[in-house]
Amino acid sequence: MGKHLDDQGAPSTEDAAADWFFQNSLDMFVVLENGAISRVNPAWTALTGWSAEETLGRLMRDFFHLHDTEIFQELDRSLRAEGSARSEHRLARKGGGWLWVRSQSKQLSRDVLLVVFQDFSEERSRAIARQQAERANEMLRGAAGVYVWRFDPRKGVYVFEQDIPTPSSPQGGARTMTMAEMTQSIHPDDWARVWENFSATLQTGDYRLIDYRYMEPENQTWVVMRAAWRGVRGQSASMWDVIGISQDVTELTAARDAALDAAEAKSQFLANMSHEIRTPMNGVLGVLHLLKQENLTDDGRLLLNEALGCGAMLAELLNDIIDFSKVEAGKLELAPEPTDPVALVRGVADLLRPQARDKGLYLRVETPDDLGWVSIDPVRLRQALFNLLGNAAKFTLAGGVDVRLTATPTATGSRLRFEIQDTGVGISAEAGQNLFERFSQADGSTTRRFGGAGLGLAITKRLIQLMGGQIGFSSTPGQGSIFWLEIDADRACPVTQQEEADSPLFAGLRILLVEDNATNRMIAARMLEAMGASVEAAEDGAGGVEAARRGFDLILMDIQMPGMDGVEATRRIRALDGPVGQTPILAMTANAMAHQQAGYVAAGMNGAIAKPLSPAALIQTIATTLNTPPAPALRAS
Q1: DSSP 8-state class, residue 212
Q2: How would you class 180 by CB atoms within 10 Å of its CB: exposed for 0-12, middle for 13-18, buried for 19 or more?
Q3: pLDDT < 50: residue spans in the chain
Q4: If you write DSSP's letter for every residue of 75-136 in order, what string do you get?
């Protein structure tokens, strides 16, 4: 740009002012000579990030967005025709991103062009946001049952974005509602809760979300509204204005309630089925356990063991169904305790060794020698390993199964990895995609050929996830599979095992057995007496309360009994004065689901033994209970 000189050879006043404006303007000035950039002002560098050295000598189009090429061509045509041009387009920012600018171009001479760019990126963003908000409001205004509103605390009036029905205008047409109209439209039982939340927002501006019942003016029926609101600063210095949105969620609430009812019905069905199945199972398996104490022929003992094995499989299937229901409902809890993982995995293998031996399979276990004890839930880990190892033995026709336990040290303990490798039928890639889903097996013929309900792996996966671990597998059809699981376990101190006594386990223990079913009463009494206990029986809850006054070391209480059930009998025993009111009580019941057992504990029981009874379960639960302080009953307020 040329400069005019005065008589003394100094730049003229006009040129000095122009140069000052060029250097200090907040808009970007760019001078081009013969198409190349020859000069930029500081605002160019401040807004785009490009220094003068990085800019000079380049073409203006180098800084245009690719999609704005047509705009550049239009500018060029306007300049040639009129000597000036205006436009809106994007300029590249150094390091990424774009500036939206308004440009004014003026041809100063045949070879010199001045372009002024004004940044309007923020203005454009605000305009887009306003347009989006307006479109969203328009959509909300058109949506049935959705209302956008603002409350003015100075006037005590709700102002809506669309026509609404009100008590004074049931057919609609109003856009305002007074505080009094809103109050009379909210259900009396909900108004205090609504006002508590609304007044808090008026004072603090806090966001709130609440459901309440609202009288629909036109049909005079209660609907369920869900409202969300927050404060915005208005003209009042002491109170916030409130903006909000309300939606009729009656149908959604009904659908939610139906889903909850369905879940409750499912839970009740499982509870009833559990009780109905476990009661006769207890009789069958209990008698079989008692027969083991009799003198039988070798053939008779073989048949007895087969029957017990089939009963155990049936009990395991029932437990799988109930356990999966617990996991889905989030009611399954872990109970970590000091455990020897080497002994645990070897114990599981020993349980399944007869099954493998009968099929002519080898079953080998590899474990480290110096792993030590860890804190885990042994029951759930044993269940997971039993499922995996049991499947390996079930689906292997020749060869055998290898079980490997390895450990990687961590800051607090070890990461345990269990691998079960078999030489079985294998799993195809397609079947493996859904293998850990419930009721899923490799193919339809698997159930017919090998049996099973397809729940074991689904439960195993949920159990391992509950422990914070991982599970997976690899397989080659026709060659076998490797299933693995990994869990983190903290270090734990070993538990000293007590030596077995020469006398019967429960010698001298006085037990009160409260059970209305004669078969179950006989089975439990015979099992306990075989362990050395002295057993007295009562046939119902009322008889149990009366007998409890005579004092016992332990009470086994059935739950479902005619007249007075086990829960009520427990409450009455806990209300007795003196030591008899503190006697340990165990529920002995077919109602063995988690929420049911929690109810027994709340009534004052110390725990529960699930039917069908087994000698091992009796020993473990009784021994644990007698070493635990008695539980107090929770009294209803």
Answers
A1: E
A2: exposed
A3: 4-5, 8-9, 439-454, 497-502, 629-637
A4: HHHHHHHHSEEEEEEEEEPTTS-EEEEEEEEEE-SSSEEEEEEEE-HHHHHHHHHHHHHHHH
Of 224, 264, 231, 274, nearest in space to 248 by CA: 224
Tokens 């629909």, residue located: 216
Read off φ and ψ for residue 202, nearest 5 degrees: -60, -35
In one-letter notation, the amino acid at residue 560 is Q
Q: Which helix (H) or strand (E) holds 538?
A: strand 534-538
364: amino acid identity, one letter: R
Using an 8 Å Cβ cutoff, are 90 and 60 in contact? no
Q: Which residue has the tokens 């509870």?
A: 271
Tokens of 45: 């560098």
Strand, coil or helix: 389: helix
Q: Which two tokens stand for residue 284?
A: 């069958």
- pLDDT at position 208, please? 94
Q: For residue 434, which of 388, 473, 479, 391 has the smallest C-alpha distance?
A: 473
pLDDT at site 453 = 39
For position 446, what pLDDT does the model report? Answer: 43
- With beta carbons less than 8 A apart as the criterion, state whether 591 and 598 touch: no
CA distances from 635 to 107, 568, 601, 603 (A): 94, 12, 12, 8
DSSP string computed for 245-311: EEEE-HHHHHHHHHHHHHHHHHHHHHHHHHHHHHHHHHHHHHHHHHHTTS---HHHHHHHHHHHHHH
Measured over all CA atoms, what is the biggest interatomic distance in the chain, rounded to whole angstroms?
Answer: 137
Say which residue the tokens 């276990």 belong to: 365
Answer yes or no: are the C-beta atoms of 516 and 508 closer than 8 Å.
Answer: no
pTM: 0.42
Amino acid 47 reads L
pLDDT tens, 453-465?
345 687 788 888 8
* Own/partner pairs, 586-589, CB within 8 angstroms, 24+ separation: 586/554, 586/555, 586/556, 586/557, 586/621, 586/622, 586/625, 587/557, 587/558, 587/559, 588/513, 588/515, 588/524, 588/556, 588/557, 588/558, 588/613, 589/275, 589/558, 589/559, 589/560
Alpha-carbon distance of 256 to 431, in angstroms, equals 34
Q: What pLDDT is recorded for position 291? A: 81
Residue 433, exposed/middle/buried by CB under 10 A (0-12, 13-18, 19+)? exposed
How, if at all, do strands 400-409 and 362-366 pair? parallel
The DSSP bridge pattern shows strands 362-366 and 174-178 to be unpaired
Q: Which residue matches tokens 């404006």?
A: 21
User: Tokens 């269940």 — which residue?
Assistant: 383
Assign residue 35 a region (left: φ > 0; alpha: ψ between -120 and 50; beta: otherwise): left
Q: Which amino acid would we find at residue 547?
A: A
If phi > 0 it is left, if psi is from -120 to 50 it is alpha, else beta; for residue 451 that is left
Q: How many whole angstroms separate alpha carbon 484 and alpha carbon 402? A: 12
**Which 8-state DSSP code applies to residue 64?**
B
- Among 117, 120, 122, 123, residue whose Cα is nearest residue 44: 117
Closest CA to 88 of 98, 100, 76: 100
* Predicted local confidence at residue 497, as pLDDT: 47
